[in-house]
Design goal:
The structure holds 3 protein chains of 3 kinds. Chain B is an all-alpha fold. Chain B has helices at about 15-20, 20-40, 60-65, 65-100, 105-115, 120-130, 135-145, 160-185, 190-195, 200-215, 215-230, 235-240, 250-260, 265-290. Chain C folds into 2 domains: about 1-90, no CATH class; about 100-310, MetI-like fold, CATH 1.10.3720.10. Classes of the chains: A alpha+beta, B mainly alpha, C mainly alpha.
């Protein structure tokens, strides 16, 4: 976590709609200037959490602090936040300039101050030529920029983004992703960003909070989440192509091994969480890019023979499907390799890079 | 289809053409033909039976010189302005109140809308009874001790049209509320959120953001109200029969009475043509705005 | 929202409640100024809307002496159903004194065939317009929709002539035809839009399978469009039952629909006014559409919204 102070602090937050629990005793501290991404499948409560932080939803229990001030009961406008919405939510009959200034005018801010702030926001976002246009005359990317501008002119410490890029096409999305990252570097504001897109999460975040069922599953730096997922859900949700999972048995002993079918994978190089390991059913997971192939496989601590079943060329590389322990198993090879269905191959990997999950709980071992 | 050997244009989609015969007859014969026929005969001196004996604009000169027609027009204007203004304002306000995520929303909506299920005849008769000077609102207030209380719209020629408007608003505002509510529900939830984050008070959000966004809904509603205004007939028949005297006459009643009682068809045709003209004045600009700009099938 | 009416006590359930300050839901009072204004206004307006219904019912249950002495808003001291009986079977219009029952049955005989005929024609027509477009169809459709805005007064007399020519003037059949004609614009629009919104692939697949015009309509479209038929039925039953103008123009006294007969009973100049009988008759006439309304609920709203949007 960053060394400077806490910007947003959420303590024991719960939210129920009638009998349905949407968020459960949730805790989250966001450092000043940090870029936090709330990531999860739809219905996991990530947008709900963001709306709670913004004050757009009344919470059932807990407290929310922004900049050390308890804002649990404050109106959104008094929380020191700006928000960017998925549908942009620009006021359609007002020009871009009016859109940016409306809230400031209502708040009674002096005219020259408003002009100054708009000029600054327009310069940062490069929307000066668009100021006199109406939202209908803007492209998706331009609208998104204006929506960010509306948060910018509020001169706030915390920016909230609610899936801001999901209405845009893939190309524009990747462009704006870079722009948001640059914007964060320039402004150094705290940003909380909701998305279901793992690429956005990986590229933008200082830390990612992976959510499911109203609970934060894992809160960590992107690389840590990618390499050491705390449970099977996180492991499966991040990464494309997805991590390979093989079900089997863990046999503890002087050197623990994983057994599935007639395969035995030594786990002496695997860093177990916690102290003891005990035997039982578990799931062995390894990412496709951590699998070596051909000659390289033999230098790995574990190697086995397999046969190519399906080849999926992806352009930059090729995904090869085979079977391991009777389960579909994929790995990546360079695009230049030409493999055909039925080719016998040798694959191998280092169990140190693998993830092992307890079957009943799904937690990392 | 089956008769592919002989690709005659006329027989392509034959079943669809057969199915459309009622529409073609209705549109062609009744709507276009009937309208043209009425307009044509409005230039004749037809009395008991329609006769093609042209007299130019005579019927129209006579129409605009008849006090009863002039009163009808005046009443229609007053009734129209009241209907438009109040049903839009009340309808919108009720819709806005119902849109506040309140409890029993369905109950309230059901109550506000049920009069719309009733006919104008029933509406008119109920309000005739409620506004009865001896037993209705006036009688009740007087019996409470305020003997000078005066609220007798149906028997006072100068305000009778307002009495009719009260009944019309009771009957029709629920519909406007429903249309407005549908419009409000169609507004992106994020707009409300953005306005709240911006700290814009609710009434300003409605006035400067929501209402301008609902412009199409307002225009459609306006057309619906306007075309209903011109048709007003049963309500007047039931509530006052045009009285006292001819104080609450309306154009639609004028047409009916001249066609079927006064046996002066020419007058009836001229008056109905005037009604058609007034509807065109409303519809044509709207149709132009709605469909003129962009091509639409 | 009043389930959040709990006050600060929520804090005490929190073990580390050492930190003071706002926590949990923002306290709201059931009797906040906002709620008083909101619900107060709604309740007052609701009472205003319910008042005429209440007065109708109350008046119809009173005897004439009580009406003459009392207050229209007070509940009846002595409930009597005599006005209802009288309205149904004895009330007079002109020389006929067999009550509203005749008008009721006339209205049934008008409404049922009109609803069936108008919906049958319009649904097939809407289907043809949506899926089997042919040259010129759209022109007539546009005329039809524009025609919905033409005041009926302009077309009344030509229809009188047409009906007289085919010998149906004054008969129930004639009125059924008139209702089918004037129901066509809105119903055709309703069905055309509904069928257009159905996936085109469905229609194409059925054609590839060899189904023809009527086959597709009966076997594919009809079973899938039950909701829109219900909406159309609601729209037509209330509309035709409530009609007055066509009834008074195209029928004779012995075939008058209920609305026309009701108006003649209540507004007849002869005899002593029997307000209780009048109100009972009024309720009886309003009963059918009211029952349709309360049973159909949301579908009614959908129907009028669909009906209203384009005239």
């Amino acid at each position: 976590m960053a060394a400077n102070g806490t910007s947003v602090s959420i303590q024991d937050l719960s939210l129920n709609f009638g009998a349905v629990s949407v968020l459960q005793t949730l805790n989250l501290d966001v450092a000043e200037g940090e870029f936090i991404v709330l990531l999860g499948p739809s219905g996991c409560g990530k947008s709900t959490l963001l709306n709670c932080i913004a004050g757009l939803l009344d919470i059932s229990e807990g407290r929310i602090f922004i900049k050390g001030k308890n804002v649990t009961w404050e109106e959104p406008k008094d929380r020191g936040i700006g928000m960017v919405f998925q549908s942009y939510a620009l006021y359609p009959q007002m020009t871009v300039e009016k859109n940016l200034s409306f809230g400031l005018r209502v708040a009674g801010i002096a005219k020259d101050e408003i002009a100054k702030r708009i000029a600054r926001a327009a310069e940062i976002l490069q929307i000066e030529p668009l100021l006199q246009r109406k939202p209908a005359a803007l492209s998706g990317g331009q609208r998104q920029r204006v929506a960010i501008g509306r948060a910018l002119v509020r001169d706030v410490d915390v920016f909230l983004f609610d899936e801001p890029l999901s209405n845009l096409d893939a190309k524009l999305r990747s462009e704006l992703r870079v722009e948001i990252k640059l914007l964060h570097r320039k402004l150094q504001n705290t940003m909380i960003y909701v998305t279901h897109d793992q690429i956005e999460a990986m590229t933008l975040a200082d830390r990612i909070a992976v959510m499911k069922g109203g609970v934060i599953q894992q809160l960590d730096a992107p690389q840590t989440i990618y390499n050491r997922p705390v449970n099977r859900f996180v492991a499966g949700f991040l990464g494309s192509p997805a991590m390979n999972f093989v079900e089997g048995q863990l046999e503890a002993g002087t050197t623990a091994v994983f057994k599935t079918g007639d395969l035995t994978i030594p786990l002496d190089r695997y860093g177990f969480d916690g102290a003891g390991t005990k035997s039982g059913p578990c799931v062995f997971g390894i990412r496709p890019e951590h699998v070596a192939f051909g000659e390289a496989a033999n230098s790995m601590p574990f190697a086995t023979d397999a046969a190519v079943e399906i080849v999926e060329p992806m352009g930059s590389d090729t995904l090869v499907w085979t079977k391991l322990g009777g389960r579909n198993f994929s790995f990546r090879v360079e695009a230049e390799k030409t493999l055909r269905n039925g080719d016998p191959i040798r694959i191998g990997f280092d169990p140190a890079r693998a993830s092992l999950f307890d079957t009943p709980s799904g937690n990392r071992m | 289809m089956s008769n592919s050997e002989r690709p005659n244009r006329l027989f392509r989609n034959l079943n669809a053409k057969i199915a459309s015969i009622p529409m073609v007859l209705t549109a062609g014969v009744v709507f276009v033909g009937g309208t043209a026929w009425t307009v044509l005969y409005s230039f004749t001196n037809s009395k008991l039976l329609p006769r093609l004996n042209f007299v130019g604009l005579d019927q129209y000169y006579r129409l605009w010189a008849t006090p009863r027609w002039l009163i009808s027009i005046e009443n229609l204007l007053i009734y129209g302005v009241i209907s438009l203004v109040f049903s839009l304002v009340i309808g919108f306000l009720l819709a806005a109140l119902l849109d506040q995520k309140i409890r029993f929303e369905d109950t309230f909506r059901t109550i506000f809308l049920y009069p719309f299920a009733l006919s104008f005849i029933v509406t008119g008769l109920v309000w005739q009874w409620l506004l009865n000077p001896d037993f209705g609102v006036q009688g009740v207030v007087r019996s409470l001790g305020w003997t000078s209380f005066d609220f007798n719209p149906l028997y006072n020629s100068s305000i009778v049209i307002y009495g009719i408007s009260i009944a019309a608003l009771w009957q029709g505002t629920g519909l406007i509320m429903c249309l407005m509510l549908a419009g409000l529900r169609g507004i992106d939830e994020d707009i409300w959120k953005a306005a709240r984050v911006d700290g814009i008070p609710m009434w300003k959000t409605y006035l400067f953001i929501i209402i301008p966004m609902m412009r199409p809904v307002f225009i459609t509603t306006l057309v619906i109200i306007a075309s209903g205004i011109v048709k007003v007939y049963d309500l007047v028949v039931a509530q006052t029969s045009g009285g006292p005297g001819i104080a609450s006459e309306v154009p639609a009643k004028y047409v009916y009475d001249y066609m079927f009682f006064a046996q002066n068809l020419g007058q009836g045709f001229a008056a109905s043509t005037m009604m058609l003209l007034s509807v065109m004045i409303v519809i044509v600009p709207w149709a132009y705005l709605e469909f003129g700009g962009r091509k639409r099938v | 929202m009043s389930d959040h009416a709990v006050s600060l006590s929520a804090t005490s359930s929190n073990p580390q409640a050492g930190v003071s300050g706002p926590s949990g839901p923002k306290p709201r009072h059931v009797f906040s100024r906002r709620n008083i204004f909101l619900y107060g206004t709604l309740i007052v307006v609701a009472l205003y809307y319910l008042l005429p219904l209440y007065v109708m019912v109350v008046t119809s249950l009173k005897g004439m002496p009580e009406i003459r002495l009392g207050n229209i808003f007070s509940p009846p001291l002595e409930i009597t159903f005599e006005p209802w009986v009288k309205a149904w079977s004895q009330a007079c219009t002109g020389l006929n004194c067999d009550g509203l029952s005749r008008g009721f049955w006339n209205s049934v005989r008008i409404t049922v065939p009109s609803v069936i005929l108008s919906i049958a024609i319009a649904s097939v027509n809407g289907y043809a317009l949506a899926n089997w477009r042919f040259k010129g169809a759209d022109t007539f459709f546009v005329i039809l929709i524009v025609g919905a805005f033409i005041p009926y007064q302009v077309m009344i007399y030509p229809i009188v002539i047409i009906l007289r020519e085919i010998g149906l003037y004054g008969s129930l059949t004639g009125l059924v035809i008139v209702h089918s004609i004037f129901g066509m614009p809105i119903l055709t629009l309703l069905f055309r839009n509904y069928f257009t919104s159905m996936p085109e692939e469905l229609f194409r697949a059925a054609r590839v399978d060899g189904a023809g015009f009527w086959g597709i309509y009966l076997r594919i479209m009809l079973p899938m469009s039950l909701p829109i038929f219900v909406v159309a039925i609601i729209l037509q039953v209330t509309g035709i039952w409530n009609d007055f103008l066509f009834g008074v123009v195209y029928t004779r006294p012995d075939t008058y629909p209920m609305t026309v007969q009701l108006n003649n009973i209540v507004n007849s100049v002869q005899g002593v006014k029997e307000y209780n009988v009048n109100m009972a008759a009024t309720i009886l006439t309003g009963l059918v559409p009211l029952v349709v309304y309360f049973i159909s609920g949301k579908l009614f709203v959908r129907g009028i919204a669909a009906g209203a949007v384009k005239g």
